[in-house]
Amino acid sequence: MQHEVTEVQDLLGQNGKIIEQGWARRPVWKYSRNAIRAPKLAIKEWDYYAIVSHEHDLYVTATFSDLGYAGLFALAFIDLKQKTATQVDAIKLLPLGKLGLQSDSNDHSISWMNERLRLAFSRQGQTRRILAASPQMKLPDGSSGLDIDVTLTQPESFESMNIATSWEQNRKAFYLNEKVNCMNAEGTIRVGNRTIQLQNGEAFGTLDWGRGRWTYKNRWYWSSLSTSIEGIPFGFNIGYGFSDRSVASENVLFYDSIVHKLDQVTFEIPQDDYMKPWKFTSSDGRFEMDFKPLVDRSSRMNLLLVKSVQHQVFGTFSGKAILDDGKVITLDEVYGFAEDVYNRY
After folding, report:
1. CA–CA separation, 96 vs 181, rounded Å?
2. How far is CA 283 from the centre of its chain?
3. CA nearest neighbour of 49 among 64, 68, 36
4. CA–CA separation, 266 vs 281, rounded Å?
5. Residues above pLDDT 90, as percent of the chain
6. Is there a contact between 254 and 159 (Cβ–Cβ < 8 Å)?
7. Is 1 exposed, middle or buried (0-12, 13-18, 19+ CB in 10 A)?
8. In terms of DSSP bridges, do strands 203-213 and 170-191 run parallel, antiparallel, or are they unpaired?
9. What is the pLDDT of residues 194-220, one digit of tens each?
């Protein structure tokens, strides 16, 4: 079921369906809005970054998205030691593809701002720069303001998780996604009156780059981690529930810039409380993790036809992951996140 696509090709054919579904180690599908057989309101495009500092016990996340009916922008600060999450959001109605989100994740520059939030993402060669600020963000300690200027390094040798899948009930609905983990992060994060310097080798960035046309109702599960094991970058991307994954999963390990493919991984989430311990189990026995939640970054929106319930939970992972060559990677309370999201729009 794990069909690997290796040839560079157009994503969609003239009938609006994916030409070759599967997963890939590098971006091989060429995306074009003009090839999508759907109204502009149905097209979804987003760039999402998560930056973790293992030294300073924090995450910052930044979202730049065009969901057709609205542009959604967000900046969040997660203090893992204090177990708090603070976020500022903004909405732009009916962007319909006019926000400048690019057709691939190569060199680009995008930005957006209002009086509460400023975002600017760019890439040039092997570096990505994330500029984001919310001067009015109210922090748990009573201070105000979050400002980040972080550069991520993505060497040419880095493999990434890429997937192109469709929905069984509508093959013209599709999901194109690239996840880049373990990018070294350096720069500055200003939190209120405190300045945090991210140093080489202790902070990492993850990119979630997505384009697609979705069906009306969806629920997905996603988990990600980026760290260093004895000086070698290690991470994982685990996810399911979104589109028909019978052709391929997006479950992978990243080790020393190489992708190691996994089969199916199941999230075992307590039904009554997201803050109780989770478990992750794999069909091939190569990914077995315990997850201890620290912060639930949750949100809920219900506007009749539009509904969203999100739980992005940050915490620590402990367990084992087995690489393609049989090498066992052991984690002991390493920061990462896992989410359960339901959307209707």
Report:
1. 29
2. 23
3. 64
4. 5
5. 91
6. yes
7. exposed
8. antiparallel
9. 999 998 899 999 999 999 999 988 999
Answer whether 139's CB lies under 8 Å from 77's CB: yes
Residue type, 198: L
Written as six digits, the tokens of 92 are 């732009």
Using one digit for the tens of pLDDT, what is the confidence trace for 72-90? 999 999 999 999 999 999 9
What is the phi/psi pair of residue 104, to 5°?
-145, 180
pLDDT for 267-311, tens place per residue?
Answer: 999 989 999 999 999 999 999 999 999 999 998 877 666 778 899
Q: State which amino acid sits at residue 176.
A: L
Does the CA dihedral 245-215-88-103 come out positive or negative?
positive
251, with CB counted inside 10 A (0-12, 13-18, 19+), is buried
The whole-model pTM stands at 0.97
Q: What is the C-alpha separation between 104 and 96, in angstroms, rounded?
A: 18
Q: Residue 3 CA to chain centroid, in angstroms?
A: 22
Residue 1's pLDDT is what?
Answer: 67
Tokens representing 255?
Answer: 């080790």
Cα gap 116→162, rounded to integer Å: 33
Strand partners, 179: 161, 208
Here the tokens at position 10 are 């157009």
Domains, in order of start, for the chain:
9-31+38-344 (2.40.370.10)
- What's the whole-number average pLDDT of the chain? 95
